[in-house]
Sequence to fold (216 residues):
Amino acid sequence: MKSLYSLSVLSFFLWLTGCATPDVKEQTGVLVNWQQQQQKISQLRHWAINGRISVQTEQEGGQADYTWQQHNQTDYDIRLQAPMGAGTTLISGREKGVNLKTSSGEELFDTNVDELMLRLNGWPLPVSGLQYWVRGLPAPTSQHEVSQWNKKGLPRVILQDGWRIEFRKYKTVAGNLLPGKLFISRSGGDEEVDVRLIIRQWTLGSELRSARQTNV
Fold:
């Protein structure tokens, strides 16, 4: 029998089956200066996103709607709601570590969120990298490669820490170009993992409720 921990976390994610999702057409026009883009977006440290996240491994798959509030460089709160009332999990990251609580009352703590997820599931989930990838940035803690660029001059594919991060869509949010859909995959090693992250809404700083968005 699977542990309740694994079932709780696994239920957060939706594996998008059926028809393949087509690439979003990219508008042509003035190219983005990537160096300036990185500097600008890296200053966005107080933001919130919501949407749907999915994961598929060789053996399992699951789903959830999520909200993610990033308070500063180290502090964040993630709420994951499994479908059909199957349960809610809260992940609270702070400078000293990360705490995970399920709606059944169980609780876990670790100083490293990625190791917590690996211990919990038996397969990796790069939560620490996601803080940067959801903003369209490589994580500053390790080497990376931009292997593909889109027509706007933004990264289409970043390779980092054994993960392939593909940006399928960008949005304009309060004058900032930010991702709207990411496909993240890892092959080789002990377990293949595919993560798909759809961002329905971006909100930034004091304009959390009023940021106007358009697809790019």
The longest helix spans residues 34-42. The mean pLDDT is 82. The chain has one domain: 4-15+31-199.
